[in-house]
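Listing S7. Sequence submitted for prediction.
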Amino acid sequence: MVHTVLTSTVRTLRPMSSPYAATAPRTMLNKVPEVTVWFWLIKVLCTTVGETAADFLNVDLGLGLTGTSVVTGVVLAILLALQLRAREYVPGLYWATVTLVSVFGTLVTDNLTDNLGVPLLLSSLVFGIALAVVFGAWYSAEGTLSIHAITNRRRETFYWLAIFVTFALGTATGDLMGQALSLGYVVSALVVLAVIAVVAIGWRLGLHPVLAFWIIYVLTRPLGASLGDLLAQPTDQGGLGIGTTVTSIVFLVAILGAVTYLQISRVDVIGDDAAAETGAVRAPARHGLLQTVVVVAVLLVLSAVGYVARVNALGADTAPTSAGAAAPGGAPGTAAAGGPNASLGDLSSFRTITADTRGLLQRGDQAGATNRVTDLETAWDQAQGRLQARDDAAWTRVDRKIDTVLKALRADNPDPRAETAALDDLLNALG
């Protein structure tokens, strides 16, 4: 159904006249692929790689968040320059660019969250507003948001800017569901699939195809990210334990195979633009602007209600452990027993990982300590929803100290004294 929705998107939209038509750049062949089942298959594969490859470069290769961002940013700039210079759609170049945009969009959100401490809810709101601004400017300048009409440089620039923001927005909303709301990989993926299905049904009942396309395009990002995390993360953290390396390689090979087929078969090359637009003229108008306002408003209201309900549920289900009270399973509440952040309850599992990391560092095993602290990062992110619901201020205090530890251990030239000091400070915060 999704394939049907998005294939017909480009066939039912009539580009409106633009006040800039007289000065518009020279018309080119359409620079993007036809929306087919191949389009969505490769899109999901790219979003999955965006999640796993970013983790692979950042953690497994030890480039760090900043180093990974710089490397991927440079490669993306080169690919974008080549894509903009091309005069027609080239499958290999186009999808390589999408893959790098996926990785870089993921890193932008991760930098905001990990390096700057921006809450995921705020990131989601900011990127949502940014996407609305991009779409508004694009429509104002070109009179259409159709991906079937990317035939001049200005439209293509708007197109890639929108693609980038959708990846950043999708990363933020996906992490918000999986981490801040503690839904986990499987539930997050099911929620996204449910919304996609509803949008597809809405299209069948008259929802504007361009609106349906862009909603689903945004949602495939958290869907792919949830799939990537489910495959790559360890089993004790809710994943299948395949690892980021194997997952990235498998999906990259799948992308390569699919793109090679498209390069040879050319089944996704958009035909005559004039014929497509002539067909669009005959298509009935679906009141796109009114539908956009109504649908976006409904999605925002439902998202806000769901967010508040989930946060309240987390708070109600995980009431703070009182000082000296037993933690789940009958064990004493280590962090609750008079610790500085006792309102968060039992933090002993995080303290254990932190102590392990410090022990490895004292034995001179920098690589081992860096790997072990990744377990702390993952476990803390997965517990964010229930801990933050208990006491947001206390969670924020500990979260900042964990960020300090991560930066110290993942520095290009680690300073053992700074690492030890950061770990000791975190141990005190953990009780």
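Caption to Listing S7: primary sequence and predicted structure tokens for the chain studied. DSSP finds 16 helices and no strands in the chain. The two ends are 53 Å apart (CA to CA).
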